[in-house]
Amino acid sequence: MMKIAIGSDHAAYEMKEIVKNLLLSKNLEVIDCGTYSADRADYPEYAIKVSNEVLQQNITGILLCGSGIGVSIVANRFKGIRAALCRSANDAEMARKHNDANILCLGARVSSEADVKKIIDAWFANSFEGGRHADRLKIFENLGEKPGVSC
User: Considering the entire predicted model, what is its pTM?
Assistant: First the structure.
């Protein structure tokens, strides 16, 4: 059974529960990293938890916050995480095919439930194409570890 880690802050708690039920209906094992209520919660805490699960278990993840921006910024601080903020099914398709994204980020306040379902369907319907895209990923895989090339 495929595993997926999921997490959100308070702003996206209700949407996280909808997404979690959708994933369970697809016979996926869901690791719920929180939050577990609509009480105020800081999104970095859940982005960190999901990112760690994705890295430790070599699985994919879904992060949600109000806009999706905050969780994507935090997740992308981790080496090996390629978190993609997706606002459309096409975004999700390209994130998987061209960027080998391993965390899908969603904005609960900017995407409807119907849009989120389409985005998730596109995410799972696609996989990394490799080839020239793999070469591009190698370019940024170790950024921040040493000085890079300047203009």
Answer: 0.92
- Cβ contacts of 40 within 8 Å, gap of 6 or more: 10
d(CA 112, CA 58): 29
Dist CA 108 CA 128 (whole Å):
26
Q: Which of 65, 86, 105, 133 is catalytic?
A: 65
From first to last of its 151 residues, what are the pLDDT tens digits of the chain?
899 999 999 999 999 999 999 999 999 999 999 999 999 999 999 999 999 999 999 999 999 999 999 999 999 999 999 999 999 999 999 999 999 999 999 999 999 999 999 999 999 999 987 677 777 777 677 767 666 666 7
Instruction: Out of 10, 33, 86, 98, pick the active-site residue.
Output: 98
98 is catalytic: yes
33 is catalytic: no
Nearest Cα to Cα of residue 60 among 111, 128, 117: 128
